[in-house]
Design a protein that fits this description.
Blueprint (H helix, E strand, L loop, with lengths): L1 H16 L4 E7 L2 E7 L5 H12 L6 E7 L13 E4 L16 H4 L7 E4 L11 E4 L20 E8 L1 H8 L3 E2 L2 E13 L2
Antiparallel strand pairs: 1-2, 1-9, 2-7, 3-4, 3-9, 4-6, 5-6, 5-7, 8-9
Length: about 190
């Protein structure tokens, strides 16, 4: 009887410990990338991204920037990412407060989805995907002089081959000569 009760409690605890995620598909001209978002760990950042997704604003945007070992060679702090989600200024919504990796526990590892920004609390629509582990993008990392890092909020679950194809496209000073079209980003859950 006690064993049965203990097993029931354990199964209830395990069910409650499963984090709810939101699944999205990024359809590009080079193929699809599937991501899962972590609304329990980065609620403001996920809500911000989903406002753009649900409004269909990423349709016909692009991946426009790629950071590679070659084009980062002159920088002291090198990263490998692809950046997308460029929208006309009039379609950008209000910036979102940064949820640092120190707050969320979500680090910039291979396939991490994160918000691009200039200053803290300035992220709007532009996002990036990490290729390889990028600790300089975490809180306390040296890539951004303010030390806040960037707001990680999701992870690629399928399509890292597409991410790498995008990274390998011809670029000039990190900007893709022919940006890779984002056909749409939609929820798939």
């Amino acid at each position: 009887m006690r064993l049965t009760f203990a097993l029931c409690l354990l199964s209830i605890f395990q069910i409650r410990c499963v984090e709810k995620t939101t699944q999205c598909k990024i359809e590009t001209s080079l193929g699809a990338i599937e991501v899962e978002l972590y609304p329990e760990k980065a609620p403001n950042t996920v809500a911000n991204f989903l406002k753009y997704v649900d409004a269909g604003l990423y349709a016909n945007s692009s991946f426009f920037r790629t950071c590679t070992p070659e084009n980062e060679a002159e920088r002291d702090i090198r990263i490998e990412v692809i950046q997308g989600g460029d929208l006309p200024t009039e379609k950008e919504m209000d910036p979102v407060a940064i949820e640092t990796t120190e707050q969320t526990g979500l680090l910039h590892k291979d396939g991490t989805l994160s918000m691009a920004r200039d200053t803290p609390n300035s992220a709007t629509c532009s996002f990036f995907i990490c290729i390889g582990t990028q600790p300089s993008l975490d809180f306390g990392g040296a890539r951004n002089p303010d030390g806040h890092g960037f707001a990680a909020f999701g992870q690629v679950t399928k399509g890292m081959d597409v991410v790498k194809k995008i990274q390998g496209q011809e670029e000039d000073d990190q900007y893709l000569i022919e940006p890779i079209k984002i056909l749409n980003i939609t929820r798939i859950d």
